[in-house]
Amino acid sequence: MRFIIRACDNIFTIEPIEPCDSQTTPDIAAEEYLIENADTLLRLYVDTDRDTPLFTTLQTLRDAFLEDLDEVAIQAEIYGLIHWLLSDNGIRAEGASLEETADRLSDIDIESDSDQYTDIIFHLKDAVDRLYEMELDDL
CB-based contacts of 1: which residues, under 8 Å, 6+ apart? Predict the structure, then answer.
């Protein structure tokens, strides 16, 4: 997955780059960003203040990557995307595995009879599955 974040008067838009164009490098202006993979997105996320319009656009791209984890090829990138998602939702997972975190959030949802963490739980379980697939591929 490749994208360009276009900027115009401090308003950012996301432009997907078609797979057939993956061999070419598109022209981008100085205030625009080429996101070639999850690593590029994560590096930009680390360098961006939370209170900027760009940050919201980065979150939208993060969600796009999380929706299609099969396109993410490096384990560290998956962990980075998931921990960013957890952080944005005020969830601390230090010392817990992704599976344990999903179980804890599921227990909270059951106890409170809510579905407030359903999407996060889905992404956690999807990430665990993808990481497991990657481990099997390495065997």
Answer: 16, 37, 64, 65, 68, 71
Distances (CA, A) of 24 to 1, 17, 18, 36, 85: 14, 10, 10, 11, 31
Say if residue 28 is exposed, middle or buried (CB neighbours under 10 Å; 0-12, 13-18, 19+).
middle
Distance of CA 113 to the CA centre of its chain: 27
pTM of structure: 0.91
Give the type of residue at 84: W
What is residue 23's predicted lDDT score, i.e. its pLDDT? Answer: 65
- Residue 71 has which token pair? 């396109």
Instruction: Quick: pLDDT tens for 54-110.
Output: 999 999 999 999 999 999 999 999 999 999 999 999 999 888 999 999 999 999 999
